[in-house]
Specification:
The protein is α/β, with parallel strands linked by helices and about 250 residues long. The chain has a domain of about 170 residues: P-loop containing nucleotide triphosphate hydrolases (Rossmann fold). A hairpin with a 2-residue loop joins strand 4 and strand 5. Helix 3 crosses helix 4 and helix 6 packs parallel to helix 7. It has a 6-stranded mixed beta sheet with strand order 6-7-8-3-9-10, with helices on both faces. Strands 2-1-4-5 form a 4-stranded antiparallel beta sheet, covered by helices on one side. The two termini are about 35 Å apart.
């Protein structure tokens, strides 16, 4: 059953790399305009799940998905679904900032131009809007023609967020977006996440439990490819249903 606030549903999702089963029977709903954090030890399947949500795992040979992932009620792995369309609507920001070796302006306009946006005034407006949304406009407005590679790590990551937002997605996936950044840049991105959820649904994988507690509304705890517990963040961290969750968040294992 789909609740009105649910934007993505995973129904009994299993995922295999060759013969290795990386996810087992994952069922969970992601709500619109909320931040959902996925936590758990390395190799527990959280990044695999994140990449399933915009079909990034399609790019890896020998992988297989079972179960259904519904985006606005439609199975994104259905026969007639174009993965490129899925990725337009479900954007992704990776662990390490990965700007293109182009100008700041061209980083942001690259995707929209491929999608057919050509008019200079439209592109300029889009760049300004996306950089403002990513809290980078004031720092970058006078250097738009310069290489994105000269920005600091934190600025590069905000540029990557702006680049994802330029495609006007509904959902933003973030795979450990601050793990390569210093504390000040991390704080900026966390503030940004709080601001962005007014307009976007955000799903973040993080190995930093304090970060999950700070930024998310709901948290899913994964262990060995299984979703052990999925609850409102405050409940999961203060009064979890599962002993395994409690052991992990109190540092007894993992």
């Amino acid at each position: 059953m789909q609740d009105n606030n649910t934007i993505i549903q995973c129904q009994n999702v299993n995922f295999y790399y060759g013969n290795f089963r990386a996810l087992t029977d994952v069922t969970m709903d992601f709500e619109q305009n909320r931040v959902t954090a996925l936590i758990g030890p390395s190799g527990c399947g959280k990044s695999t799940l994140l990449r399933l949500l915009n079909r990034m795992n399609d790019l890896i040979d020998g992988t297989r998905v079972e179960g259904r992932i519904l985006f606005e009620g439609r199975d994104i792995y259905g026969d007639k679904v174009d993965p490129v369309e899925v990725r337009k609507r479900i954007g992704m920001v990776f662990q390490k900032p990965n700007p293109f070796p182009k100008s700041i302006f061209n980083n942001i306009t690259y995707g929209p131009r491929l999608a057919g946006l050509q008019r200079k005034s439209d592109l300029e407006a889009l760049v300004e809007r996306s950089l403002k949304q990513a809290s980078l406009w004031e720092e970058a407005r006078d250097i738009l023609g310069q290489s994105a590679m000269m920005l600091s790590g934190g600025q590069q990551q905000r540029l990557c967020i702006a680049r994802a937002l330029a495609m006007k997605p509904d959902i933003l996936l973030m795979d450990e977006p601050t793990s390569a950044l210093d504390p000040i840049s991390t704080a900026k991105i966390e503030e940004l996440i709080d601001e962005l959820k007014k307009q976007y649904t955000i799903i973040i994988v993080t190995h930093n439990m304090q970060q999950a507690a700070r930024v998310s509304d709901s948290t899913g705890f994964f262990y060995l490819g299984k979703l052990i517990e999925f609850n409102p963040t405050e409940k999961l961290f203060t009064n979890p249903d599962e002993k395994q969750t409690e052991d992990y968040i109190t540092g007894r294992f993992g």
